[in-house]
Amino acid sequence: MATIKEVSQLAKVSVATVSRVLNGRVPVTEAKRESVLAAVAQLGYQPNVFARSLATNRSGGIGVIVNELSSPYYSGVIQGIESVVEAQGMHLLVSSGHAGRHLEAQAVEFLRQRRPDALIVQLEATSDADLIAWSGHGLPTVVLGRYIDALADRCIHLDNLKGGYLATRHLIDRGHRCIAHIAGKPALKDARDRLAGYRRALHDAGISYDEALVVEGDFMEEGGQAGMQRLLARDLGFTSVFAANDQSAAGALLAIRAHGLRVPDDISLIGYDDVLLARYLFPALTTVRQPFVEMGQAAAMLALSALSAGDSKEVRRQFDPVLIERTSVAALQS
Amino acid sequence: MATIKEVSQLAKVSVATVSRVLNGRVPVTEAKRESVLAAVAQLGYQPNVFARSLATNRSGGIGVIVNELSSPYYSGVIQGIESVVEAQGMHLLVSSGHAGRHLEAQAVEFLRQRRPDALIVQLEATSDADLIAWSGHGLPTVVLGRYIDALADRCIHLDNLKGGYLATRHLIDRGHRCIAHIAGKPALKDARDRLAGYRRALHDAGISYDEALVVEGDFMEEGGQAGMQRLLARDLGFTSVFAANDQSAAGALLAIRAHGLRVPDDISLIGYDDVLLARYLFPALTTVRQPFVEMGQAAAMLALSALSAGDSKEVRRQFDPVLIERTSVAALQS
DNA sequence: TTGTAGGCGTTATCAG
DNA sequence: CTGATAACGCCTACAA
């Protein structure tokens, strides 16, 4: 691998000059510039990133931590991040947190050691306080999927309350009055917000909130299925269900079917997220979309803007959920 | 950020000694070792990876390129890779190739500049020849999802012919004799192999191959749907279909349903891959599983073994497809 | 077993 | 505008 020194010799200039033409900024005589470029081409020279990083104290890397690399939620986000990070000539260092508080801290530590120029984290088990502490520690950090007051300008998130409202409202608009809810883990803000949206929509429509109609799920198929079973067992006569995410909805669908009921004929079902499988469920799931890829892009732009003070903060931080109508919700004949 | 020199001063030893206790191998007096460790702890010292890389010419990173980061196929693979790479204290540099020949080459170049210690590539558009050329270029490269003779010991792949055989055979075992096939893009070896497996199973069962029963798909929902429509239009009386991957199967399912037929009552359907959505389809899709995560792990182990000559080559390179029975295939009453 | 010192490839400072 | 040269932080002969 050729070094800058070899280039400088071949081009008959100093290494400083080579560095200059390669890194732009400073003016260099046209003749020398060309001679350098020629030498670079001839040698196939590529700067050694380690040496450069050592000298500049910049790695050119953006660290990313998500709960689960293989989850349909986060992979969309990563894709969004990658597209903008790479377009800037920077690269991605990824690591997963596996939704464990300890593991998440470990992942952060792990990436921090690699000295990325910025960090983008989508953490589940970590507390707001820890997040605040970490991001104060020198490394520009953007928080994905969570809103923290103290870090307001570094948070990319979606208004889950609005999303919950949207979903519930859609059901109400279709004539439903008795609406059940399969919530997510109450420890998660997302889950609580969606529930809050559900309650508000109910309230706004003059429907009183009935605790018996909401069960706790876990954002996974099993929880959705179990929750639905409990709901069904209570025999409350609900005509529709809002599941806190698509995966719970898929589980709920199974339970409904096992109970001998049909969607949407007997029970209408609405999910949340709009991951790939929502389209494939039968009936295709009406749901509330989270723009994962766009949020990933925004996160990356925010991270990048923290580096080059140039980019002003015109990055969108708050995203809106949008209703995607498919066929799992039926209008109730009144 | 503390440097090794500061540690050495605090511990009252030379930097060399600090380096030694931190990097193992060489013997160091217990007293000094402890004093160094204490100093490290006190200062919260963390070696500067750039300086280290510059000196050792090793980055500690493994580069990974897949077609699409957000695809359910590749994200499983990445997860597998990550788990073993990180367990070795190394990190992951990811980039996507977006299935374009030019883009793939670009991604490789991009990662190569970051000087990972090894590369794991899952490429679609790139030719075998290019792959061979690249991997000869100094950087240990493992090829995922493709078998290339010249790179035999660096390829992790699944026997797709066997998989195609398995799927078709399952249908035959259930009494089906007239079996259609929605193939993948013929440009892809995976697709051709699955088709070959289909043909061989037919042949072994004494069923003659009928060209009219196979249509070209594209490994995506649209292709599966369109292909199924064409098949249905030909009115050939087939009782079952083998789709080259789950996504095509999902599309086919839509078309079958739109045609007023039911799965598996009227037509049995089998997919390939066993991605998440297979379980959620209705009816749940019988399919052939590719162990993505395990393959990713194997790829990582192979990459790692190329670095530390220690690990012998006991890494599994060839994986077997396994049939996952769900409910989209019915036995044919004869 | 330990310390000294040179080198890894760049960038950046500072004279010319 | 250009060229020396000193960092950058660590590893590793080599010598002691």
Q: Give the % helix of chain A.
A: 40-55%
Judging by the overall fold, what is the CATH architecture of the largest domain in chain A? 3-Layer(aba) Sandwich
> Main beta sheet of chain A: strand number and arrangement?
6 strands, parallel
Oligomeric description of these chains: homodimer
Determine the number of helices of chain A (DSSP H or I, runs of at least 4 residues). 13
Unreliable residue stretches of chain A: none
Overall geometry of chain A comes to elongated
CATH superfamily of the largest domain in chain A: Response regulator
User: What structural category arises from helix and sheet content of chain A?
Assistant: alpha/beta
Radius of gyration of chain A: 26 Å
Number of domains of chain A: 3
Percent strand of chain A equals 5-15%
- Record the strand order, biggest sheet of chain A: 2-1-3-4-5-11
For the termini of chain A, the CA-CA separation is: 77 Å
How would you state the average pLDDT of chain A, rounded? 92
As for the CATH topology of the largest domain in chain A, it is Rossmann fold
Total E-strand runs of chain A: 12
Question: What is the CATH level 1 assignment of the largest domain in chain A?
Answer: Alpha Beta
Considering residues with a beta carbon less than 8 A from a beta carbon on another chain, report the largest interface and each chain's count: A-B, 42 and 42 residues
Q: Element order, helices and strands of chain A?
A: HHHHEHEHEHEEHEHEHEHEHEHEE
